[in-house]
C-alpha cells in the first residue's frame, strides 16, 4: 500500500501480516481524495474510523490536512498505525490514535469545532445502522458546520438517504464498493 499524492507520495506503508484487514484500494482512495480535494486544507480536521493501517487518515495529512485522528478497536491495528506514522516521521501534534470501537468513540466525542471530514470503513459484515444512528444522534457535536461523513460499504449493503440529522448527498460506485457522502441537514 502506498500514499497516492502529496507530501508522502509514493511512500509504502506497513500492512498487517494477516488478511483480516481490508484496506481501501488505491483506486478508490484516489477517487475519494479527488472528490475531497477542495475540502482539504491546512485547517482540515480528519477523523479515520475503523482505521486499520491508517492509510486514509495518513493520505489526508499527506495532502495537507492539519490533523488526523485514527480510531480502531484492534490494539494490533493501533500499533500498526503508530508504526506507519513513525515511519513517515509525522509529528505527534498532527495525529492522535484511539483504541476504541467507532460507535463508542462517536458517542463520547465532543470535538470543540467538530470534524471537517469523517471517514468510516468497517468490515463489510458490520451492521452499519448501529453506527449511523449513533453518529446521526451526535452529528452536531461531531461534524463542523460544513463537515461531511463518508461511509465505505459493499454494494450488497445499501444505506439509507436520510438518517436523523444526516442527508446523503452523493454516492460513488466503484465495482462492488460504494462511498456514501453525508452532511448535516
Q: Layout of SSEs?
A:
Layout: H1 26-36, E1 45-49, H2 55-62, E2 67-72, H3 75-87, E3 95-99, H4 102-108, E4 115-120, H5 128-137, H6 139-142, E5 143-154, E6 162-163, E7 166-174, E8 177-184
Parallel strand pairs: 1-2, 1-4, 2-3, 4-5
Antiparallel strand pairs: 5-8, 6-7, 7-8
| Terminal Cα span | 36 Å
Please work out how many helical segments DSSP would assign.
6
Mean pLDDT: 93
Radius of gyration: 15 Å
Instruction: Compute the number of strand runs.
Output: 8
Classify the fold: give the CATH topology.
Rossmann fold
Residues in helices, as a percent range: 25-40%
Strand order of the largest sheet: 3-2-1-4-5-8-7-6
CATH architecture label: 3-Layer(aba) Sandwich
Regions with little confidence, pLDDT below 50 for 5+ residues:
none
Q: So, the CATH homologous superfamily? A: Vaccinia Virus protein VP39
Which percent band covers the strand fraction?
A: 25-35%
Tally of structural domains: 1
Describe the global form.
globular
CATH class category name: Alpha Beta
Which class of secondary structure composition applies to the elements? alpha/beta
Major beta-sheet overview: 8 strands, mixed
| Strand and helix order | HEHEHEHEHHEEEE
Amino acid at each position: 500500500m502506498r500514499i497516492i499524492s502529496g507530501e508522502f507520495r509514493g511512500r509504502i506503508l506497513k500492512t498487517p501480516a494477516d488478511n483480516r484487514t481490508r484496506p481501501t484500494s488505491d483506486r478508490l482512495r484516489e477517487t475519494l481524495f479527488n472528490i475531497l480535494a477542495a475540502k482539504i486544507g491546512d485547517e482540515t480536521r480528519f477523523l479515520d474510523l475503523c482505521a486499520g493501517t491508517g492509510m486514509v487518515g495518513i493520505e489526508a495529512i499527506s495532502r495537507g490536512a492539519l490533523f488526523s485522528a485514527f480510531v480502531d478497536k484492534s490494539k494490533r491495528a493501533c500499533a500498526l498505525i503508530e508504526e506507519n506514522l513513525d515511519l513517515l516521521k509525522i509529528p505527534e501534534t498532527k495525529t492522535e490514535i484511539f483504541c476504541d470501537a467507532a460507535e463508542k468513540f462517536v458517542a463520547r466525542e465532543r470535538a470543540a469545532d467538530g470534524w471537517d471530514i469523517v471517514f468510516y470503513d468497517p468490515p463489510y459484515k458490520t451492521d452499519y445502522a448501529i453506527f449511523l444512528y449513533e453518529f446521526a444522534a451526535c452529528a452536531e457535536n461531531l461534524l463542523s458546520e460544513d463537515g461531511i461523513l463518508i461511509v465505505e460499504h459493499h454494494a450488497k449493503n445499501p444505506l439509507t438517504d436520510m438518517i436523523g440529522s444526516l442527508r446523503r448527498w452523493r454516492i460513488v460506485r466503484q465495482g462492488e464498493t460504494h462511498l456514501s457522502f453525508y452532511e448535516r441537514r
